[in-house]
Inverse folding.
């Protein structure tokens, strides 16, 4: 994450870096920003619930209008793109280390052929793995 993003506001509380006072740094992530105060609050919430099962949930849309929901889509898409890019880097490193497509597919719950099609980037599939 990039610290101190000029002019960026916190995606959670809406304060800009200047408005956040002593906790004035705003950290930029994929599709959203967070100030120190909100990051601290998030950390406290995570600590409170780490004893039980942690389940990531999308924001509840029951009270949201279509425009509010549409405004969230670019953020969600940016996070999905970043996750996919990170996954490709991990798979590329596993392949560099000689891990088979069968093992990679197995941990993803897909076939070796599906793993190869998704991640190979043109690597020749021999079907012998």
């Amino acid at each position: 994450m990039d610290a101190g993003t000029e002019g960026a506001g916190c995606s959670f509380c809406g304060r800009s870096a200047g408005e956040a006072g002593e906790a004035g740094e705003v950290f930029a992530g994929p599709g959203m920003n967070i100030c120190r105060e909100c990051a601290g609050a998030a950390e406290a919430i995570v600590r409170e619930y780490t004893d039980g099962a942690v389940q990531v949930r999308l924001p509840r849309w029951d009270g949201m209008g279509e425009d509010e929901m549409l405004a969230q889509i670019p953020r969600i898409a940016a996070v999905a793109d970043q996750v996919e890019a990170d996954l490709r880097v991990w798979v590329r490193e596993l392949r560099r280390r000689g891990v088979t497509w069968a093992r990679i597919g197995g941990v993803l719950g897909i076939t070796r052929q599906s793993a190869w099609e998704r991640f190979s980037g043109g690597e020749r599939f021999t079907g012998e793995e």
About this structure: The radius of gyration is 20 Å.
